[in-house]
Amino acid sequence: MEKKSVLFVNFSLHSGGIEKSLVTLLHLFDYEKYDVDLQLFADEGLFLPRVPEQVNHLPSLFPPEYRLQIRRALPALLRQKKPLIALCRLLVSFAGKTPGGMGDRLARMWRIEKHFVRAPKKEYDAVVAFMEGQPIYYAVTKVKAKRKIGFIHGDYKAMGLDEDYDRRFFGRLHALCTVSESCRDALCEVFPQWENRFFVIYNIISPAFLRKLAQEPADFGDSFAGPRLLTIARLSPQKGLDLALLAALILKKRGYSFRWYIIGVGPEEADLRDQAEALGLNDTVFFLGEKANPYPYVRACTVYVQPSRFEGKSIAVDEAMALAKPILLTDFSTAADQIDSGKTGLIVPLSPDGIAQGLQQLLDSASLRDSYSKALASLDLSNEGEISKLYDLIEGRRPPQ
């Protein structure tokens, strides 16, 4: 039987949940039935080396220099004799200075970039745009494919996207997948005319594989013997780390001795470091940067904390659940899709006081932490069969929901 061709499109492979989910999916893909190409806007990120050898990794749509600050990007691109890409970068820089939210920014960028990015040379049986914004815009506008499938990894209503702009692209997709029932409900509320095209495909988790990776040593860079809190997140406003720092200050003033470790990078890193220093938390909160294997840190922590303002279905939380760690979530819209508060973890109000109060409960009670860990350990959280839903969509079938 002749193999079908599938193109995956994503922005990059930095160490975020979307990128991690994509790499996991590619490792499980059936390469006896499908030839797979991967198109990135930028060939960068901690997960690049994890792309399976069976995947044909196409040259990136933009060179690495495109991502530099404008003053460095322009001369670098001109030295490489890429004047059109330099012009694109300049126009995008001007567009980025006008006011507006994330959706406005993505739309303005694509209105410019679409004139400078190349289309694939071949036609595919299916294209899978693995995140919102440019990957979906590219798949719809530039890719010739019999089936066009998109992914939204968050609560559409909370993400600040431009629904008027997105509407012209979503209507040309055969399917739009998201990662939880709540996220699908949000899409149905905003775009009711395409309700029958929205599908839930959960982030794929392999607990046995995670437990194996977690056996490596965790180097926190200290010999601290007290409680360790851990958060894995992109350092962006969505993740609520500014609230976490204020919660850490409240706990510290109440006399609690603990350390809070944050794994991740992002645009808010400098501001968060400055905030931690201004609050006198340099001996309490530690930024560990990116980690290719964060699972030993999850295994070694006392409590895993996700203080987000909004999420789709956090893969970091799924992985902490698979490693049976006590978990505290803020009350973002999809939190209850993951944790049964009071049974498998704790969901608290989205505020510094709410986070601090919940952590105080968990730090005060080893038996409460142990009950959450035991409840999680009893669950079967493996879901590698979710990939069959994507196969159905690629083949033009409607997957079970």
What can you tell me about this protein's structure?
This protein has 401 residues and is an alpha/beta fold. The protein has two domains: 158 residues, Rossmann fold (3-Layer(aba) Sandwich); 170 residues, 3-Layer(aba) Sandwich (Rossmann fold). It is built from 15 helices and 13 strands. The strands form two sheets. Strands 3-2-1-4-5-6-7 form a seven-stranded parallel beta sheet. It has a six-stranded parallel beta sheet with strand order 10-9-8-11-12-13, sandwiched between helices. β4, α5 and β5 form a beta-alpha-beta unit. α2 packs antiparallel against α3, α3 runs antiparallel to α4 and α9 packs across α13. The protein is globular, with a radius of gyration of 22 Å. The mean pLDDT is 94.
Summarize this, please?
With 401 residues, the chain is of the alpha/beta class. It is built from 15 helices and 13 strands.
Give descriptors for this structure.
alpha/beta; 16% strand; Rossmann fold; seven-stranded parallel β-sheet
